[in-house]
Design a protein that fits this description.
alpha+beta; 2 domains; 6 helices; elongated
Length: 199
């Protein structure tokens, strides 16, 4: 059986149960008060809008779902679509564009862009160490990209482009980029970039 045949890719209740098993491995936690006791499931009312995975905290009386505090929060998109998008983005070796998500998931381009943006944000590494903090070599390179928003255009093509500086850790491959005003040594070696490159 293909992994795409898994129930959580097609059934909303199964999708919520799958996400809950990952985020709440030790049991549900109320995002309002942090309580873990007396949390009950709220039965969906077919006459109103069905909210899958709705829980109620017995301590603060607040209602919540597993979406709260995650990339799924404030989204009306079905959880099945979220899981399909995450799978496509993680399984694709060369990445997936928002247009491809738009076509594959049968959602609007705006929704696909929103999905891709949130999933990529969640994929960011948690480490906050400065570049080269482990004592390894850090390489610096610069390039010209796109069109800079300058009022006075120059006849020289490179003068009208964004100037981008990139630091790369040689041993880990971690990279960070920033737009700079110029490529002078005094600008590139400025201690101000140390703060900007903490990522």
């Amino acid at each position: 059986m293909s992994i795409l045949s898994k129930p959580y890719f097609h059934d909303e209740q199964a999708a919520f149960e799958f996400v809950e098993s990952i985020i709440w491995a030790a049991g549900p936690v109320c995002p309002h008060c942090g309580g873990t006791e007396r949390i009950t499931s709220v039965k969906p009312n077919p006459e109103k809008r069905v909210r899958f995975g709705l829980k109620r905290c017995g301590q603060c009386k607040g209602q919540f779902t597993v979406r709260m505090g995650t990339i799924f929060e404030e989204s009306k998109l079905p959880m099945t679509k979220w899981l399909q998008a995450i799978f496509l983005m993680c399984a694709s070796k060369k990445g997936v564009s928002a247009h491809q998500l738009h076509r594959t998931l049968d959602v609007t381009y705006k929704t696909a862009w929103f999905l891709a943006h949130r999933v990529r944000e969640a994929m960011k590494p948690f480490a906050k160490a400065m570049m080269g903090s482990d004592g390894g070599a850090v390489e610096v390179d610069e390039t010209f990209i796109g069109q800079a928003p300058v009022e006075k255009k120059s006849r020289l093509t490179l003068a009208n482009m964004n100037k981008v500086m990139t630091l790369v850790e040689r041993n880990t491959g971690r990279a960070a980029s920033i737009v700079v005003t110029d490529f002078r040594l005094s600008t590139m070696a400025c201690p101000h970039w140390v703060i900007r490159f903490e990522c």
